[in-house]
Each structure stands twice: as structure tokens, then as C-alpha cells.
Amino acid sequence: MPALINRLQAVGRGIALGGFAVAGSAVSALLILAILSNISWIGSFTFPALCLVCVSARTLARRRRALAMRWNNRDIPSPYFQKPQLQRVPHGWYWTGHDYHKYKWVAWWSLNVTWVGRDPGTWRDVLWLVCEPVVGVILCLLPAGLIGYGLLGLSMPWTWRPLTDAGMGWYGPVQLGSAGAAWVAVPIGLLIVLAGFVLAPYLLELHTRWSALLLRPTKLTWLGRRLQRLTESLEEATTAQAAELRRIERNLHDGAQARLVAMGLKLGAVEALIDRDPEAAKALVTQIQDASAQALAELRSLVRGIHPPVLAERGLGDAVRALALDTPLPVEVSVDVPGRAEPPIEACAYFAVAESLTNVAKHAGAAHAWVTLRHADGVLRIVVRDDGRGGADPTRGSGLAGVRRRLGTFEGTLSVSSPPGGPTVLRMELPCALSSPRTSTSSGTG
Amino acid sequence: MRVVLAEDLYLLRDGMTHLLAAHGFEVVAAVETGPDLVSALAEYEPDVAVVDVRLPPTFTDEGLQAALVARQQKPGLPILVLSQHVEQLYARELLADGSGGVGYLLKDRVLNASQFMDALHRVMAGGTVMDPEVISKLLTGNAADEPLAALTPRERDVLSLMAEGRSNAAISQRLHVSEGAVGKHTASIFGKLGLAPSDDDNRRVLAVLAYLGGTRE
User: Fold this and answer.
1) What is the phi-psi region of residue B76: left when phi exceeds 0, alpha when psi lies from -120 to 50, beta otherwise?
2) Does A77 reach chain B within 8 Å, measured CB to CB?
3) Is this model's pTM higher than 0.80 or not?
């Protein structure tokens, strides 16, 4: 019984998809109008007609993709380029990414026309829609047609007389004209109805496949997107690096450098005082010692932020262990990384874990945390788990977004699972190669 | 008192050689690299070694590794490890053998000559000297750790000073209490950490180890 309902559903869906064929005919007519008007005197129709063609093709294609997911559980990813943002430049005009406009609506229009028109995805949508009156009719409406024709056969014993009067001479292989012949048409009609029901789901699936062929992103689109992502992450990395350098410069300038100047001045004072007032000179020397200790402490924390010494000395595994020891809750670390990654990758992974553990300590309210590092198949996988209250959201707050950005620079990814009530699990993946394991330096031979 | 010194920066090596000489030490070898340190330790059998963690040729933790190997071959060989940064991880590794005679200090501490000499003498005497920075990290880090949770705040103060390598007399001075009171605190600490009565020095090392959450029976 459920099988029958499924087949009935498939027939209905086929009829619904027939709507695309109808729309396809209309759009094809519009397209022909656009082409004809371009080569004749009414050239002004071309552009508006093309706009309408593109918009309807994209709208209908989007609808077809959604139906493929709903009816056939087939994911057809959207092939379009990301829509660029309209930017207002300081002198008040609008920049669309390729030209300037004075008025916002003109800029908006230009942006959309370029975005839609230059996308090969749009034209593949149009191609699909134009083919639909042929392909769609065959694949989607065939079952309904078969069933209708079959039902006609079943009704033949009662309807053959008016039908032959209307000029219908044959039903399939049967020549109409007598009651006996009409009864022969019944089993044939039954077979045709059955064939319609049997074929319906397969034809629906076939139509979805055909649509996927044209409506999914091409290899070129994938590459284009990858390029776009890389460009973005490169930009972000450059900005982040510049900010980092500025931070270091400011730290040195306001911290260690200023303290050294102060120490120099105080040493000058000591030189002047040392004979006249040895006690005051001694007090100054103590101050200078304090200042030097403070300068060293500042430099140390600065160095830790640039490149943690333990990372340079021991590699990622031990650096993360050291990090775990410095975290104010018990953290279990398990490491399976046979070798060492490139230093920038190691630093990236280290700071990602550091940021995650800081988050755990600050926000999770956890009693325990676990960190695992594993390298396999050219990917470093890091999992940071805690038994805290959950509810971490990477779109809010800068902590997790920062981790994602950090990883993004090296084409790494972060996925967050943090239901309210916990537990929170962060999964990070960083594609990287490992060099051979570091040989021990403790033997004294190397 | 014979010292082997390992430090790759010429200015610091030279300065420390003078400092040690001024305080009555004899610097029998002042080396630059990890391999040189290993052979110097074997050759001179010094009373104490002062070792920088990061040394050529790899500029990783060569000094620390050399110190660990030397102490494996000659347990209890007094070694004072210096570094630009301190890590609990390294502190645990140094203390893991439980034999004492180990120090781990920031290089900054060398600037205060009397403090540095004091630490060196305590390491030579088989004590354990940990940098206050290691200890403050421990206090914030492992506050929830089991046996330590049973200690009173005053006992924790005493234990952290013990970890810095101070004697009961020095602790009593620091905390402005009588030496007898410190003795009572230490006895209570040993009891709570389950350390059987034995040689007092050894128990102090073990208490510090427990403090660091390292290996303890």
C-alpha cells in the first residue's frame, strides 16, 4: 500500500514538474523575442527581455534545486558567485566592485546586472529551462499521459461507439469497431496504467539527475570560489599580520624601550649622587634593578605572544601539554603527531588551542577538558572538548571567530558543537605535511 | 667549589663567570653548546652545574636534555637550570627523579646576585629551588588538585616557600612566625600529603613534587 501511495505521489510530482515545462516555453519565447529584436528594428526589447529571462531562469532553477532536495534527497549546490557588497567610497559615490556610480539605485542595478549576467551559472539555468519543454514533458508528464491513455482503454467497452464516431479508429494495436474489440482494449489499458505507475518514480529520479547535471556548480565555479576564499583569507592574514606588528612595535616602544631610557636616566643620577649621597644612590640602584626586572618580564610575555619558546624548543605536542598545565582546570592531552609541521602551521595550531582553552576556562564553567591532536592523511585534527555548560556560539564574540580566522589562513576549518547544557566540542582541521620526527638532541653527538 | 657553566651568549657567560668567581666558585669549564656541556660534565665532575635551557646547535632545549641525561648517569648531581621563560612542564621533568639537588630559575634572577648565590648553595646542598613564577602558576593552575586541597592557606604559603627551596628558618622570617610554628606546619603538610617520616630533606623534595602534581607514590 505505501508503495502505491509513493507511486501515486511520483505521478503527482511529475505533473507539478510539468509546470517548469510550461514556464520554459514562455521563457524560450522571450529569449527568441530578445534575439529577434536584437537583429531587427526593436532592439530596445533585447535588454529587458534578457533580464526577465535571467531572473525567471534563476528563480525557477532555485525552486527545482529545493525540490530535488525535498523529493529525491539529492543535494544540488547553488552554483552562483557570492554577491558582491555595494561599497560607499569616502567621496560619497558607490563602488560596485568594477565601476563607480553617483546614485545608489544605479549602482545597485549595475551591481546586480553584472553579478547575474556574468555568472555562467545563470546561463546554465537558462539552458536548462529552455530544454525543459522537451525533456520535462518527456520525463515528467509521461507517467500521467500513460495513465490517462490506459484509463481510456479501460473505459472502451462503454465508450467505443462515440469514440469511433468521433473518428478514433485504433486503440494501441486494436482496431475499434465492435464490442469484442473494445473488450480486448481493457487488458491493454490496464497494462498501460500499470506501466505509468511503475515508471513514475524512475522518471522523476531521472529528471532530477538531468537537472543536477546543469544546475550544479561546474569545476570552474568551484575553482573560482576557492580562489575567492583564498583571496579573502590572504587579505585577512595580511591585515592580521600588520596589526600584530603594530602591536609589537607599540609594546616595545611603550614598554621595554621606555624602561631602558628611564634606567639610563637613573644611572646618570646615580653617577651624580654616588659620592655625595651614597644612601640615595643605593635606593636608586634598587629602583633600576626593579625596572630592569619589569622590562624583562614584559619582553618575556611579548615573546610568548609572538612565538612561545616552548613551541620552538619542543614542538606542538609538548607546547600544548605546557599550555594544559597553565590552564586553571585539569586538561588531559593526547598527542599522535609523528613529526613536526611547518613552524607557521605549528604556531597556528598552538594559538588555536590556546584560545580554545582560554575560552573553556573563562566561559564554559567546566570541571575537565580534553585536547587531542592527531595527524593522518595529510590533515592535522585537533579536538578540544569540555564538560561545561555549552552554548558557545562562533558567530558571537571574537574568541571562536578569531580561531576560525586563524585556521582559515591555512585553509583550516573549525566546527563547533555546543548544545545548551554542554558538552562543547571544537573540531579543528588543518591540512599540513609533517617532516620526519626530530632526532633526539640529548645524545651529545649532534 | 667547582662549577661547570653552559651559556651561549658571550656577555652572559662572561658576566656569570666573574660573578661566580667573585663569590668563591671556581669555574672549571664555561661552554657554549649542548655536546660540549655533556663532555664537560663527564670530564670535570663538578660540584654544581649552571645550565641554560636553550643552547646551540639546535637552539631547542639542548641544555635541559643534557642536564637530564647527566642526572640519569649520576643521580643527584646538583644542577641549576636557567631560562628566559619557565614552564611547569620542564619543572616536572627536572623533579621527576625525586632526588633533589635541582634548581630551575628565570635568568632575571641572576641580576640579584645574593639571591642567585643563595639558590646555588641550596641546590648544591641537595635542596630544590623553583622559580617563584613556576609556583605562582601552580597556585592558579592546580587549585583544585586533590591532596593539596586539604591544605590550609597558611600551609600552602609554607609549601610554596618550601618549593622555592627555603629552609624553615628562612620561611619563619618571611612569614613573620616562629620557627617552631613553621615546623608544625611542615609536619602537618607531610601528614596531609601522606609522606612517611624519613630524612627531612628528602621529604621536602617529595612535598614539592606532590605540589607539582608529579610522580609520587
Assistant:
1) left
2) no
3) no
